[in-house]
Amino acid sequence: FVGTLVWHKGLHVLLEACQPLPWDRYELRIFGDLDTFPDYTRRVAQLADGLSAHFLGRFERGRTAEVYGQMDVLVAPPLWPENSPLVIHEAFQAGVPVVGSRMGGTEDLVAHDEWGLLYDAFAPAELTAHLQRLVAEPQTVARLAAAVPPVRGLAEDAADWAAIYDEVTGRG
Questions:
Q1: Which residues pair with 55 in a beta bridge?
Q2: Considering the entire predicted model, what is its pTM?
Q3: From CA 53, how far away is CA 56, in angstroms rounded?
């Protein structure tokens, strides 16, 4: 997990989903500022008690590749419709598949069972089933990782938007 430790990012759903997993078969690394929302941080720390979970705090932008390089998958469990979650783009840049909730841009970026897995945001049991599958079938993680799409560069994205703008305004 990478993100703000706040309710709408859904870390508590991920922790609930991890409860049935065999603690010795996975490691949950949680990256996010522990001081931004201290009440929520205390709540999720209690939920993490007994799990193979580690709160690793925030990290500087220069460590992004290192942090994502430690992951087999990124779980992006937002409970609200984020537009285009940066963490998903960062994971894809590192070749890391994403398990994400069917909310907003997450559903638009992750192709289910191609380079990630999707689940209902308010169904921790569905997330548990996906995580159990990945723990039991490491070859699935490798297959998903091999299919992660390339991330378009800023210049390419800007050029595409400029072309759309020109077409819509009749300049093209």
A1: 30
A2: 0.90
A3: 10
168 by DSSP, 3-state: which? helix
Predicted confidence pLDDT, tens digits, the chain (172 residues): 999 999 999 999 999 999 999 989 999 999 999 999 999 999 999 999 999 999 999 999 999 999 999 999 999 999 999 999 999 999 999 999 999 999 999 999 999 999 999 999 999 999 999 999 999 999 999 999 999 999 988 898 889 889 999 999 988 6
Instruction: Show the DSSP H helices in 19-85 as ranges.
Output: 38-48, 64-68
Secondary structure in 3-state letters for 98-166: EEEECCHHHHHHCCECCCEEEECCCCHHHHHHHHHHHHHCHHHHHHHHHCCCCCCCHHHHHHHHHHHHH
Question: How far does Cα 169 stand from its chain's mean position?
Answer: 36
Give me 86's structure tokens. Answer: 């940066």
Residue 141: CB atoms within 10 A of its CB come to 16
